[in-house]
Structures are given as structure tokens and as C-alpha cells.
Amino acid sequence: MSEAVANPADMTSDSDSGERPGQKLALYYFSAAMVLFAAQILFGLIIGLQYLYPDLLYNVLDFSVARMVHINAMIVWLLMGFIGCIYWLVEDEAGRDLVGAKLAFLNFWILSGAVTVVVLVYLFVQIGPGELRSIWLINEGREYIEAPRWADIGIVVCVLIFFYNVAATFMKGRWSGISGVLVLDLIALAALYLAGMHFTPNISVDQHWWWWVVHLWVEATWEVLVGCIMAWGLIRTLGANRRIVTTWLYIEVAMMFGSGILGLGHHYFWIGTPEYWLTIGGFFSALEPIPLVAMVVHAVYDAGRHGFKSTNHPALAWLIAHAFGNFFGAGVWGFMHTLPQINLYTHGTQWTASHGHLAFFGAYATIVIAVIYLAIQKARGDVWMSGDLPGNGWAWKWSLALLNIGVLGMTVALLISGYEQSFVERALEGSTWSAYFEAQQTPWFVQGMQWRMIFGWVTAAGLALLLWDLATIGRRETRPVQVLNAVPA
Ligand code: HEM
Ligand code: HEM
Ligand SMILES: [Fe+2]
């Protein structure tokens, strides 16, 4: 049999029928991730409304706190989603059950418990002095990774256990090109988290290290991680040729690290670091879209080569949404403001928020959702999930459309507000305090905020439908999973 076939025996045999411990655990992680996704959207709606009605929940749930929950929930649900993806694919790739499964389950409950405590503390404490005690117990004050120090240390321990599970499973099972890249990437990903725990009273030095986590995660290690998941996903959904996808993966990883690491400099323009970062950051970050183009070509090429015939239509559709979302959100929207000459005007405006939304959703939310569809398919007994679904698969199609249109609509609305803000606050009025407030009141800015809210509701509707679809798809299905035909290598 050609290597190009997604081995049907592999997908349906008894030994591989969803009973595996890692895959069971992955479903736990996916459920926790979806709960946090819903929390993210709920708090997003609140802060979006607070832009329009500044009195809303004032002194009850202030913007600063709700915003923190919005973005921290995002980071944690994406991390839990990734952990789920890896627990799901590790047994498949290694060809054996997870090593250390008991510890892994315990780890899940500890991590989930800690996340719950951290969020409750955020919500109930809200304000107070910033001192050593609050850094340890309440909030570390670093955007996106605000968790207090005790939780930080706990997260490091949980990640080490996770790493042990994954690496040991590959060591005792079989290795592949994908798993080799994955394991090396996980080491880098975990090590970078330490950079966000470094405490210094000098704000420039503090920001310097903090960006290592934020930027080197999303533009280097997370990109490589989703590259691995994508490679595996294309083999699973399309029966893509392993040699070809692995070669693509190596090329993308080389380019991603090439541009991503020094591209970090685009966050060093205005924080008090030496001036050479203007040149280094501008140049290397402008190269960052190149591997993202390669990823789109790769995904579309593979899907086209197999005539879009897949074992799982919703998963394939979300994988393709990922390829485009990553390219536009990170590549195009990132490129727009990455040169220092432009960033001087756009830095920290709604322009940034526009990019942040499209990039995080497009590059990361999408691919986690794709793997959840693959997991659900197997959990429901390896059922049919190709074309011809009941009702023509309206629920997955509508949730895909609503979520993508919602986020894209918010992105465009924020871009218009951001354009107006850069123009009035920076270009015309020269970045004064009063210029900031003037820009916030211009009609284009305000209308952008209103449109963001309208599309925010569309996004929320898409999420509600997605959760419903995930809970129900395939339950009444009796046909077995589609078997793919051999495609010449
Ligand atoms: C999937 C990958 C990416 C994600 C998730 C992402 C996300 C973000 C987020 C959330 C911010 C705001 C950070 C903050 O100040 O709070 C940001 C800033 C920025 N990103 Fe990205 N980004 C990605 C890739 C890229 C790429 C490839 C480029 C360049 C080509 C880029 C260029 C920028 C720039 C220049 C800023 C600073 C904006 C400012 O000065 O306010 N990003 N990114
Ligand atoms: C109902 C939908 C949503 C609404 C109404 C919403 C609203 C908001 C608001 C008001 C902010 C604060 C912006 C500021 O500080 O000026 C924000 C920040 C942010 N949101 Fe959302 N959001 C939504 C969904 C999402 C989704 C789906 C994602 C990604 C998966 C996301 C990622 C982010 C990020 C990364 C930031 C920080 C951006 C930055 O610092 O520039 N949001 N959101
Ligand atoms: Fe960056």
C-alpha cells in the first residue's frame, strides 16, 4: 500500500478505538478549553460594551479586570487546547498508549483547579497595592500572563509533567519527523515561560524579558507547534503524503525561527532599548509573513491534490481557515504596522487590537477547533464526517461562518477605529494626553467601536452554535468513517 493512504486500519482497529488514555485525557482538556473560550467571549462582550457605555459595571467589574480575564482566559484556553491536541496525537504518532497516564490525569485536575482559583482571586480582589505579597498571591502584573507567582511555579511543574508524558511516550513508542520537531519545540516553549517570571523594578528591563514570552511564543514556538499539528492533521484528514508534509514542516520551521527570533525587535522600538532594534526589528519582522505564505500554499496544495476529499470535513475546513487566518492575521495584519516608521503612529492603538484579534483567532483558535472535530469524530465511534451529513452539516458550516465573519468584522471595525486614532491622536495632535481623548470621541472611532460590538455578538452566536454542534455531531450517525483512496506519492 502506498504511504499516501491514511491507513484505514489505523483509524478503525479495536486497539485504537478511543479507549486510549491520552485521547481520553485530551477530551478533558478540550472541554476545559471550551469552557474558558466561552468565558473569554463573555468578558470580551463586557469590555466591548464598556467602550460604548463607560458606566457599565463600574466599581463592580472594572474594564481593567474584565480585560485581564478576557486575554488570560484566551492564553489559558489555547494552551489547554494545544495540550489536548498533543495528548490526542502523541499516541497516534508514537503507536502506543500514553506513558504516565495516571500522573497526567492528576495533572489535569491540579491545573484546572489552579486556573479556577486564580480567576476567582482576580475577580474578588481586583484592586490593591502592588507589592511583593501581591505578586506572589494575586497578580504578577504582566499582560497576558498575569498569574501570581505561586501559580507560575505550579504551571512550570504541570508543564514538566506534560513534557515527561509526551517525550516518554515517543521514546517508548516510535519517533517521526513530526514528533522530533514537536518535542524540541516544547522544550523551547516551556523554557520561554521562565522569561516572564523574572522580576526587576526597571520597567524597560521588565518589558524586555516579558516580550520573550509573548512574542517568542506566538511568532516562533506556537507557530512551530501548530505547524506540527497541521502536518499531522493533513495526514489524518486527507491522507496526505507523510514525506511531503514533513519536508514542508522542516522548511517552515527553519524560516519561522530565522525571522521570528530577531523579529522580536519590533516590540523594542519604544520601550527604552538601544536604537539598533529599529533596524533589526523592522527588517526581520518584515520577513515573518514568508513562512506563513508557505503554510497557506502547503495546506491548499495538499487539500487540492486530494480533491478536498477528506475523512472529516469540519476539521479540514477549520485547518484551511487556520492557514488563511494565520496568513492574514499574523502575516498581513502584522506586516502593516511592523516597520518603525509606521509603528510610530500605530503603536498601542486599536490598530494593534485589530491585529491581535485576527492573529490569535486565525492562527490558533481555528486549529484547536479543527483537532477537536477530529477527536469528537473518534469519540463518537469513528463515524462518518465527510460530505452528506444530516441537514447538509448546517450547524458546523454556520458556526464556522459566524465565527469567522464575526472576528473578521471586528478586525475591520477595529482597523477603522485604529486608523482614525493614529491619524488624530498621533499624526495631527502629536500624542498629547488631550489628543488621546479627542481621538476617542471622533465619529469614525466611535462607529468602529459600535461595529465591533455588532460583530462581537455574531462571534458569540457562532461560538454558541459551535458548542452545540460539538455536543451533538455524529451522535446518530451509523455510517463508518470515510476510507480514503490511495493517491500516488
Ligand atoms: C500568530 C501570530 C501572532 C499573534 C497571535 C500576534 C498577536 C499580537 C498581539 C496580541 C499584539 C499586541 C501585544 C500587546 O501590546 O499587548 C501584537 C503586537 C504586534 N504584532 Fe503581532 N502577532 C502575531 C504575529 C505577528 C507578525 C508575523 C508580525 C509582523 C509581521 C506582527 C507584528 C506585530 C507588531 C509590530 C506588534 C506591535 C504593535 C504595537 O506597537 O502596538 N505580529 N501581536
Ligand atoms: C465577542 C467577541 C469579542 C469582543 C467583543 C472582544 C473585545 C475586546 C476588547 C474590548 C478588548 C480590549 C481592547 C483594548 O484594550 O482597547 C479586547 C482585547 C483583546 N482580545 Fe478580544 N474580544 C472578542 C473576542 C476575542 C477573540 C475571539 C479573541 C482571540 C481568540 C480575542 C483576543 C483579544 C486579544 C489578543 C486582546 C488584546 C489586544 C491588544 O492588547 O491589542 N478577543 N477584546
Ligand atoms: Fe511580535
Task: Please describe what this structure looks like.
This protein has 489 residues and is mainly α. It is 74% helix and 0% strand. It is built from 17 helices and no strands. It has helices spanning 8-12, 21-52, 63-94, 101-125, 132-137, 149-172, 177-195, 203-238, 242-263, 276-287, 289-305, 313-336, 340-346, 350-379, 394-428, 433-440, 443-472. α4 runs antiparallel to α6 and α9 (242-263) runs antiparallel to α10. The protein is globular. The N and C termini lie close together (11 Å). The relative contact order is 0.10. The protein binds protoporphyrin IX containing FE (2 copies) and fe (ii) ion (FE2). Residues 41, 44-45, 47-48, 51, 67, 70-71, 74, 352-353, 356-357, 360-361, 365, 407, 456, 459-460 line the site of one protoporphyrin IX containing FE.
Spatial shape: globular
Structural class computed from helices and strand pairing: mainly alpha
Structure ligands: protoporphyrin IX containing FE, fe (ii) ion
Low-confidence stretches: 1-17
N-to-C series of helices and strands: HHHHHHHHHHHHHHHHH
Provide the β-strand percentage band: under 5%
What is the radius of gyration computed over CA atoms, rounded to a whole number of angstroms? 22 Å
Largest sheet: none
Summarize model confidence as the mean pLDDT: 93
